[in-house]
Amino acid sequence: MSKSISLICALITTFIWGTAFIAQDTGMDNIGPLTFNAARFFVGFVTILPLALLVEREKIIENINLDKKLFFKYLFLMSLSLFFGTYLQQTSLLYTNIANAAFFTVFYVPLVPIILFIIYKIKVHWSIWPSILLCIIGVYFLSDFSNSEILIGDSLVILCSVFWALHIIFAGKFMEKFDIPIFFAALQAILVGMYSLLFALLFEEINLTNILLENYSIIYAGFLSGGIAFTLQMYAQKNIEEAPAAIIYSLEGVFAALAGWIILNQMLDFSNILGCFIILIAVILSQITPSFKKLTVRDNK
């Protein structure tokens, strides 16, 4: 697969993830966030599993047998972090708008190296600190501190970005040892769906009629975002390194903000747009500076 095709896959993935915020937002008109997530991930599981069995069938048992304990450890950690990440993000949309939710979610990009340092003692590049400062400035312009509901929603998204960062880290560690990403994603999806269903039974009223009313949103968020986009992401990152891929994925916030404006008429004022722009610059800075340093060192050899 050529690099240009991988780039197209990455852009389509980012577009689907960004526009999926519309489905996530409108999909809670009749059901709660846990019920929506349960339905969404069950759809994602049904989407991914046949593809996994078609592409990876011969490698599944062999890969699991490499280290069963480690395999199930990562399955538990990744499904749990994905559950909390998606639940907090989904709940935040009850309080804040799509643009805020999308741009605060991309905080995971500068958070990844910090958490890597905390857990694995991997050195943090200096560019992370000005990136974090820019993110804080972006929060000031993007969030409405006078509105308690928006503030709650934005806080939930910032917290969810920690779990997204953990999920990305564990995914990277998983891929160092195993080579069945699609099958693993299917298992992960069914577990997150089960966690969501369990808590939905405890804290929400589950009504099949109401779930069916949200069928379009659930299918988009489950089939396209959870299924197709994940598969395209795997193919995208075959030929694109992590840093440029992260920059492309950070455009998720741009697509989400545009979709929210066009479809839901969620307008942004100048300060909100400035906040979005500052956060995007922070994310790009956190990824491109370390790569530039590596390129300079390589050229000097």
Instruction: Report Rg.
Output: 19 Å
| Tally of helical segments | 14
Alpha carbon gap, first and last residue: 30 Å
Please state the structural category.
mainly alpha
Q: Please, how many domains?
A: 1
> What is the succession of H and E elements?
HHHHHHHHHHHHHH
- Low-confidence spans: pLDDT under 50, at least 5 residues? none
Most strands sheet: none
Could you explain the architecture of this structure?
This protein has 301 residues and is an all-alpha fold. It has one domain (3-300). The protein has 14 helices and no strands. The protein is globular and about 55 Å long. The model has no long low-confidence stretch (mean pLDDT 86).
Please provide a brief summary of the model:
82% of the residues lie in helices and 0% in strands. By secondary structure, the chain is an all-alpha fold. The protein is globular.
